[in-house]
Amino acid sequence: MNLKNKKVLLVGLAKTGVSTIKHLNRLGAKVVVNDIKDKDKLKDILDELSDLNNVEYILGHHPENIDDIDMTVVSPGVPLDLPFILKIKSKNIEIIGEVELAYRLSKNPIFIGITGTNGKTTTTSLVGEIFKKANRDTYIVGNIGNPVIDTVDLTNKDSVLVTELSSFQLESIDTFRPKVSAFLNITEDHLNRHYNMENYVFLKSKLLKNLSEAEYAILNYDDEIVRNFFRKTKAHCIYFSVRERVDGAYYQDGALYFYDEKIIEERQLATGGIHNVQNALCAIICAKLMGVKTQTIGKALSQFRGIKHRVQFVGEIDGVKYVDDSKGTNVDATMKAVNSLKGNIVLL
To answer: N or C: which end of the chain has fewer CB within 10 A?
Structure first.
């Protein structure tokens, strides 16, 4: 992908935006940076970019003249139905996101894409830890807070990019095609951006659109919406379930299995709750498909203690245990957190 001397409009100066600007600049692109915030509110970010040449800034308002733009890259927080974005679309100027750009520029690493309403960050972290335990060249990227674009110059065909994908990021993909795509669950979320569940489900399913018979789709059999995604893809579908035995990974008699092979007892998992069993089943499939040994998977599952702000034990005062679940930002996530705890619970 040759971007030298191409004029690229970058919309949104968030973390991914900063990384994208730096990479585009190294490639010799003429970068036009736009953010609705004014210069004073972006001082720290602008200071970080101050040593870059060939970068133009349009701040405090959207650009009026877009006729000479060759490509637009939008940050995940930028809605694609803004009037000036729709104007760009009407002129057939390509609009993509940072994930898509990084995919096009990458040296063909193994992408594992993980999406869903809840559990994405935990599962992405868990899958990453398994691959690290297997001594694979592993990068945990995407919505988890690490821009994919930062890995482009570091990775090759043997690298594994475990990529958390939000609906905002999936909205701006085009050719992105992971080797493995995992779907954890879908419940109501972000409807202020996507308007209705139909649009939200559609955006989640976009991850399937480029998959062929050579790729894999991991589907939560217990979620009716996700289970039926098999109708939307040519990929080889493998399921996970905590309710019944399926072709894939399942929970039975207190243990987690991959087909007929027992991987680990539930009591050996370092994190509790049935939702973490689901996350672990999904992670098992991701690892097995890439040839990771059972012993390595089991060891990683028994040592992974979760991530910050997700049912994280923070201390005990006068016999009261305090748990931080501040990342539980929707009803379904909070219900799963509550159901994973024992004893009398007070929600703050």
So the answer is: C
Identify the H or E element spanning 249.
Answer: strand 248-252
Q: Determine contact, residues 130/287, Cβ cutoff 8 Å.
A: yes
Express each pLDDT in 219-277 by its tens digit: 999 999 999 999 999 999 999 999 999 999 999 999 999 999 999 999 999 998 999 99
Report which secondary-structure segment, H or E, holds 84. Answer: helix 83-90
Give the pLDDT of residue 7.
97
In the predicted model, residues of the chain with pLDDT beneath 50 are 313, 333, 336, 340-341
CA 173 to chain centre: 12
Q: Is 5 exposed, middle or buried (0-12, 13-18, 19+ CB in 10 A)?
A: exposed
Q: Is 59 exposed, middle or buried (0-12, 13-18, 19+ CB in 10 A)?
A: middle
Question: Strand runs (DSSP E) across 36-170, as ranges?
Answer: 55-59, 71-74, 94-97, 110-115, 138-142, 160-164
Q: How many CA atoms lie within 13 A of 273 on its CB side?
A: 21
Helix axis angle, 120-133 to 274-289, nearest 10°: 40
